[in-house]
Amino acid sequence: MRYRPHLPAGFVETGILSDAQLESVIYAGEAHSQHLPGAWTVDETFDVVTTAADDQDGAVRFRRGWFLGDGTGAGKGRQVAGILLDNWLKGRRRAVWVSKSDKLIEDAQRDWSALGQERLLVTPLSRFRQGTPIRLAQGILFTTYATLRSDERGSKVSRVQQIVDWLGTDFDGVIIFDESHAMQNAAGSKGERGEQAASQQGRAGLRLQHALPDARVVYVSATGATTVHNLAYAQRLGLWGGEDFPFATRAEFVEAIEDGGVAAMEVLARDLKALGLYQARSLSYEGVEYELVEHQFPDEQRRIYDAYAGGFAIIHNNLDAAMQATNITGSPDSGGATLNRQAKSAARSAFESAKQRFFNHLITAMKTPSLIRSIESDLDAGHAAVIQIVSTGEALMERRLAEIPTEDWNDIQVDITPREYVLD
Length: 424
What we know:
Shape: globular
Radius of gyration: 28 Å
Largest sheet: 7 strands, parallel
Structural class: alpha/beta
């Protein structure tokens, strides 16, 4: 390992980057210092790549990429920011960060600013209309896969071309494909129901890689691929058409790995790690202990629960009458035949779903006092409390906010309690 990163002094000593995170910066830099074997030509659409002689006009060589596959909690965002900063301090002041959602720009800005950098240097591509020049002298352009796949429309060039025009075809900076599994099925595949067309997001990701052969590509995903077909986007790893693996084409690679099954995928991951092209670590659970906090329902909460259960029982008992009144089912005199099977199924499904959501909210609310007491006890003992919220109710809150007239925005009062399930 010969690569030496350029980072401010004291990053590891002060805990800004851990030893493991710094290791990723070094591995990425080492991989990016090499090119894949062979020469290639790329057509004007950036879709077709063909082999070429080394001295052929227009022939290019692709720079080797690197794959970060660490599990949850390892700090992949901080490692990505470290790779970007390393290149930034070496004079590569333009970069692209592609992710799954536009809301993740806040996480990207947080990780970038945690390294002592200006957070607003991470700029959303959505700030620039499609077809207009990107007027940034330097910075990290943040975009999503959904935006990246926007094709040419009339006089407006595609989003991929817009980015290429900003970076220049000789660009040698960093392109981050965060949550890279969103590009799966980039080359199409054959499933149980026949041929599956290549995904638009996958094709857009490949076009960007083809258009910028000298870019330093980093794939980031804790779940890189569910099947071998879904690795087509990871072109820069050199899994086929090179010297590191015995596969001349992607088709040969897919066929061989499919024949080998899970064992072959394990061997592939092992070899990629041995070559320094793949890093997949997870947090250790050594010393972790589990203790259940049991909440004892007081009589008052039991009374509340029983009252709501009685209310749902009344709704349940009158559901058939409601469906008869709306002509979904016939009257008992006519044999109670189903007149609209689809509507009957939808009504019962809506009722059961509402019942489950209601009691889930109710029980969660009832257990909250015990949770608060446990958190306070842990804080008093000097521990840190980490709370995992499985369902935030964000979608319901956004629906409620959308219903509020603009003249009431200065005094917003929103009810997102489960009470509505019964009242509606």
